[in-house]
């Protein structure tokens, strides 16, 4: 990362990252809430979430986060391996 | 997602710009409303659609559905926020460790 960007551009980039992070967070929340609600709440005898429903929703969200972290990790591993293999292949080619 | 090696100086954290934030908020409410409608229709309206009007049971189901949906969104928001904070704390720790290693 030794490319020097001028300060204005750098700031603009950072702003973009912050903006899209916010949007991503909101999108994630609304999608996840919708899905967990759909899976956890089936009956409407009262307007308050029951204990079981609350637990189900919390677990649903927690498990989704754990899952996405795991997927991220695995993805990174696979991607890293691919890049390494590609580099090795290039080196082999250069030798010949 | 994190940007490793960004070397971001620890200034005050930047905020999303207000126009964008307002726009996103509007969008969020639209999406929320649409999802709420769809979900509660699916869960509360009888599939037979015998009459043009909603009957009493469906109406009270819908009212409760809306309340519950909003509560579950809040709940999920809290869980996500907690996870975000945890991640941020871990990242801070990592950075501090890296700095300590670099400074040694």
Give the secondary structure arrangement, pairings included.
The complex is a heterodimer of chains A (96) and B (104).
Chain A: H1 7-40, H2 51-95
Helix pairs in contact in A: 1-2
Chain B: H1 18-44, H2 56-103
Helix pairs in contact in B: 1-2
Overview of this protein structure:
The complex is a heterodimer of chains A (96) and B (104). Chain A has helices at residues 7-40, 51-95. Chain A is mainly alpha-helical and 96 residues long. Chain A has one domain: Helix Hairpins (Orthogonal Bundle), CATH 1.10.287.810. Chain A is elongated, with a radius of gyration of 22 Å. Chain A starts with 6 loop residues before the first helix and ends with a helix. Chain B is mostly helical. Chain B has one domain (19-103): Helix Hairpins, CATH 1.10.287. Helix content of chain B is 72%, strand content 0%. Chain B has helices at residues 18-44, 56-103. In chain B, helix 1 (18-44) crosses helix 2 (56-103). The longest helix of chain B is centred in the C-terminal third of the chain and has 48 residues, at 56-103. The two termini of chain B are 28 Å apart. Residues 1-10 of chain B have low confidence and may be disordered.
Summarize it.
The complex is a heterodimer of chains A (96) and B (104). Chain A has helices at 7-40, 51-95.
- Report helical residue fraction of chain A: over 70%
Most extensive interface, residues per chain?
Answer: A-B, 36 and 37 residues
Low-confidence stretches of chain B: 1-10
Q: Give the ordered list of helices and strands of chain B.
A: HH
